[in-house]
Queue: 3 jobs
Job 1
Amino acid sequence: MESGELSAVSLTQFYLDRIEAIDRNGPALNSIIEINPDALAIARSLDVEREQIGSRGPMHGIPVVLKANIDTADRMETTAGSLALKGHRPPQDAFIVQQLRAAGAVILGKANLSEWANFRSTHSSSGWSSIGGQTNNAYDPARNPCGSSSGSAVAVAASLTSVAIGTETNGSIVCPASVNGLVGIKPTLGLVSRSGIIPIAHSQDTAGPMARTVKDAAILLTAITGRDAADPLANHFPAAVPDFALNLSTDALRGARIGVWRGYSGVDNDPRVEVILANTIATLKSLGAEIVDPLEIDTDGMGEAARQVLYYEFKEDLKQYLIASNAPLRSLSEVIAFNEANRDLAMPLFGQERMLEAETKGPLTDPEYLQALADSKRISQNAINDALRTHRLDALIAPSRSPAWMTDHVNGDQSSGVSSSSLAAISGYASVTLPAGDIFGMPVGVSFIGGEFSDAALIRYAYALEQAGYQRQPPEISQ
């Protein structure tokens, strides 16, 4: 673009053509739920601006796909994949969308997702929504893309967009990024605004970038970061936020102390993942990192406490979003009623058990909620903080996820194996996943996990590992 060899229009048209050829036909990845009808017009205006005034920065003219739970005040809908919100067009952009437009991004479209960000049923198939159907893994369409940011991950992995935005409450960036061979950044809670995003739980929700390289993800994170007065965590926003793509160096791990966390879920289930972790540790050592292995981290009780928090917060947070965004339904009870009244279309494969459980919960003043919130944060944050302090660590590392499982609409997700995302998700601290290996061609990632607002340091470590370690293998998709 700087040299004039490529324009925003030509890049946008390339992706639109590729979506038509690959996403909706061919292997039918089904990652894009809606195309922005104004994408080419936006790209054209940005090309004119570049020619007449100059570039706004590295995002100028770059196509971005948004998860379909992120508000846009344009001709696209914001539905979280649910028929209950079909036709919903919010009155204003989410704060991060405002940031993207100001940076010169082309909003290319919206990505399919696990409906309601996978907070509808206990028997769901990740990547399925009643509006978008089933998204398929970019590396094997018979396998699951993980969720809930399924379409965002698959679209980037299959080169249907330059980069994408996902959201995470508990693994919804890390898991789909890992099983689709991507870099995914789960920011520290509060670094990225949550306003204008259909919520699950304010104590864990965050948006974050998904990209094919660490540098691309860092550029995108810089673009969406900013202090938003409408977000209750605005006062918690750091005083100075760096350009996350600056000062990336292959020497970043030299002298860094990295702790190996082996107490994640499924630790004994997949020795093949342990081989990938061992290879990663060897690369870290070759880059000058000091390795502390293993770490003893106590997370007993964390998951159950967080589960109760999500049920309570979903009911209240969703109500507040629906009212503020002038949605067609105004409460969780109305969503439940809609799904029941339209069962054949809205619930052909699985039910709404999580929604029904959330509806039984009381207000956020209930002692049960307050205790669960305190417990979940205390256990998760102490686990990370104590490990970092006791062993004088700069970060933890662990496998992100086992390879993708087969999609199964009869039994739902069969996602056994390694999973390390919950610790960072529940604590609200930062994590970065990047490709580290593959098993029979199916990607496996590793995650750097750090303390509060350690995002920039983790990105630097991920970049150094990326440059010296396993190189991402693109999926074998042809037009």
Job 2
Amino acid sequence: MTAGAGLLASDVPLAEAYDLALVDLDGVAYRGHLPIDHAAASLTAARSGGMRLVFVTNNASREPEEVAGQLTGLDIPTDADEVMTAAQACAALLTTRLDPGAKVLVVGGKGLVTAVRAAGFEVVESADEEPDAVAQGYAPEVGWTQLAEAAYAVGRGAWHVASNLDLSLPTARGFAPGNGALVGAVRAATGVVPDSAGKPSPTMYRLAVERAAASRPLVIGDRLDTDLAGARGGGYPGLHVLTGVSTARDAVLAVPGERPSYLAADLRALLAPHAAPELADGWYVCGSAAARVSDGELRLDGEGIDLVRAACAAAWAAVDGGQDLDPASVPELTV
């Protein structure tokens, strides 16, 4: 099943309509080290109903076993083979160009080191060892020394591959610099644009779908520019939950390549049918809510998640049809 151009409808709960959920971690299953309300119960219920889960994360610093352990500790029992990390995707991307035994300078945590070694490459620590590639992923310990070695190697011709390009990283205290910010330092020093294995590239989704032999996958994420852009890029339906980075207003203003197929307040949406807005007398109507764009302004009637869905339908249709939409007319929407 592939994603349509706008919001989709489902007459049955999403956990019945799709056989595999590709679930983001930060902002969806948990926030930092804290649980997100309804996440554990909803994922457990979806799994009990037959939906398989694979947790897909742009975090490349940790081993799948560590991620599985954290999820299990948050009442989401998970095995390591149910985790797909950006480190694994990065190593898979390296295999498309490098021969087994090639030297790779790894800048990142042990998860990336393990993945690169498991893919058959020799891990080195210095640009003077003439690596064929630089694999760069986020880890809290990454500092100037490692970034400098990466810049030296890339400047000498090594292939630069990033596990992901997330500029920010959600933590319990707020947003911190992500791998994209660190990759940016190497790019600024070398002028070389890196390739990326993580979201929004659909590589991880494809690998996870192949691993699970799934036929009806659903991507679940909180970031439009990574999770949902990756879903669109891979042709997978995407569920945007409003428990993380991207807000309801962000969804209304989303560019076509980042738009979700479904919208919900949280993961309880897996256990419920989804209505799609319908056009009636110039208004996009969803449940008891309605929205339209008139004279370049978004006009709203109603509240809750149905209003967000109606607003998205009205805004997307207007913009795609060549109308102007004043972003100032789009308020912060609460659910």
Job 3
Amino acid sequence: MTHKSLLYFFLLSILPCLVFGQKDANKDESKVPEYSIPDIFVNLKGQEINSIQDWVHKRRPEIVNLFEDNVYGNMPKAIDAINFTTVNEDKMAMNGMATLKEVDIEVTNRSKKITIRLILFIPNRKNQPAPVFLLINHRDPENIDPTRKTKMGFWPAEEIIQRGYAAATFHVKDVSDDDKVTFTEDILNTLYPEELEKENGMRGLGAWAWGAMRAMDYFETAPEIDSKKAAVIGHSRGGKASLWTGASDPRWAITISNESGCGGAALSRRKFGETVKVINTVFPYWFTDNFNKYNDNEALLPIDQHMLIASIAPRAVYVASASEDLWADPKGEYTSLQLGTRVHREIYNMEGNFPKVINAPGNPVHLPYAGHHIREGKHNLTPYDWNLFMDFADKHYGYKSGQ
């Protein structure tokens, strides 16, 4: 059976759940319940957080631990060995614009091994290490075709190269299949089987974030890459994983979430579009078992998604939405970004504020420490989005595209 056939049957299998969720979802702003959110500036001991030292040593680690325990699961640290092997190199890729490297990242723990295939294009005209965008790809592998015989707007590698950035990606199937039956067959069964026995153990999205961190391990060894100027990006479920990557690993300069919705950038307590119950029902393998406790009980969560964004501070964060993607709750994503980046402003004294009301499509807001835009259209990652992400990175790095 082909990959596309398997995907087709998987979508058929979850269609009843998806239809049920979409049918019952609230997409009426007037029906959003009254809610209060946890204060990012008061820790669990009731202590006020008002300095960088308090944030770094008291509140931020506490928030990350709360997300580990209640949403994404543990992030295992144990690695016995990690090796990088270039299995394919083409110095004249993209008609000479780039060097293609396909790198196998082999990770060993307790004598068991898994391999992640990293696809990396590096601009040839640069005379210095290139900043890099890493895409966490959960869509069909044809979206990231290293031969470039198939080109998709989801990963416009040529445009990224033309802007002077390196374009990197991996497919999530190398760390955890996007499938409720086979998601354990990669790193979970092989490297960290104990996580499957824990109520707060790693699950699918945590595994994807772990995979992105291994790509960063490689970037730090690659002289052609400026690992200090690395951005991690994901769309939809990949956007949830990218936010968790940025929160878990401070090596990322920019964390980008595109239309990540529930369990990503959107506030869970708004109960708009996809809800905690719906996402846990349809995708039970994405989050830790403890997250099920909050089905229809979002008010009991000790955190909300604005705190995930806050945990990325002082590093940069970007949240993007689409006007017709009400399932992902664009307003909830924007509100979460506004609230979460208070840490950038009030603890780190960074300049700039987001407008009180979300801007109309076509009017991105790019602050020194955070970005936002809403695009006309449906749920997707498009070249338009990518160009705005690169515009933000240009500004953030003080970088002139193409140099």
